[in-house]
Amino acid sequence: MSTKENPLSTTPHDDHDSPQPSPRHALTVLGAGVMGVGITVLALGHGLPVHLVDVDRERLDRAADLIDGELRLAELMGALPAGTPLGTLVTGTSAKAVAGATAVVEAVTENAEVKAAVLAEVSGLVRPGTLLITNTSSIPVDELAGALERPEELVGTHFMNPPYLIGTAEVVRGARTGEPAMAAVAELLTALRRRAVVVRDAPGFVTSRVLHPMINDAARVVQEGTATAADVDALMQGCLGHPTGPLRTADLIGIDNLVDSLTVLHERTGDDGCRPAELLLQLVREGRLGRKSGRGFYDYA
């Protein structure tokens, strides 16, 4: 991948070299999917250097183009601090990039085994005291912390999509999360101009435990033929003040990600209301994953 000019400089990284960290903040983001891209845009837009890691080089190349476009959009929308030079993006396929980070954000697929394996590897590579963040939307933080060499370094920070437009982040303190990690995540979120709301550890925490079953119920209403997706969203917006409607929100989250989160909630809470609706499963089977695939409950083509 070639180096790009402003507004985004992106450089491929030789996995045998060490990244050049900022004196205060240097992020490594693991996973170049929807959330990894969004978190990277947020950080770059606030002047922080980011090393974006994914095992798929083609996905990394696509992500660099997406990041470029989303940075431009964020600037046009006034979502980035004026006068702050953009951070530098480096991409690579090796987790060894975390060695130079002051904080690592894990944003891989919402699968407990995959996340635990990634975090376990990272825990063995970073300097002691490095802040480790999992961006899980539903898996208890302490469940993942069990895979780490130093579980006290792990914090849950649930960024909403798109992170550069949503000014609040849900911060989850696990049972073993230490005070230094909590102080470090507070400092980082301050640098990103995000308001942190700290909650206790539990499946789905607050946002996913409330929002995802509601989306599931909305999907069931459509599945049962009571109303169309557009009508459900119109009623939720017009009558109950939901800003986008639950099913447009599902498309933004990614319907596959939503199904994964609901599955975690169902398994860990036993709440049958969290069992993914058949319509959601059908959309995933058809590849209708929402905005990222061009079609979900709505057509974005």
Automatic annotation (TrEMBL):
Keyword check for Cell membrane: no
Metabolic or biological pathway, per its Swiss-Prot or TrEMBL entry: Lipid metabolism; butanoate metabolism
Molecular function GO terms recorded: NAD+ binding; oxidoreductase activity, acting on the CH-OH group of donors, NAD or NADP as acceptor
The protein, known as: Methoxymalonate biosynthesis protein
Key word NAD present: yes
Family: Belongs to the 3-hydroxyacyl-CoA dehydrogenase family.
One of the GO BP terms on file: fatty acid metabolic process
Organism this protein belongs to: Kitasatospora setae (strain ATCC 33774 / DSM 43861 / JCM 3304 / KCC A-0304 / NBRC 14216 / KM-6054)
Pfam families: 3HCDH, 3HCDH_N
Residue(s) at site: Important for catalytic activity: 158
3-hydroxyacyl-CoA dehydrogenase C-terminal domain location: 204-300
Compositionally biased residues, Polar residues: 1-11
Keyword annotations: NAD, Oxidoreductase
Sites where the protein binds NAD(+): 31-36, 54, 110, 115, 137, 161, 292
Region (Disordered): 1-24
InterPro entries, per database record: 3-OHacyl-CoA_DH, 3-OHacyl-CoA_DH_NAD-bd, 3HC_DH_C, 6-PGluconate_DH-like_C_sf, 6PGD_dom2, NAD(P)-bd_dom_sf
Sequence ranges assigned to domain 3-hydroxyacyl-CoA dehydrogenase NAD binding in this UniProt record: 27-201
Source taxon at top rank: Bacteria
Gene behind this protein: bfmB
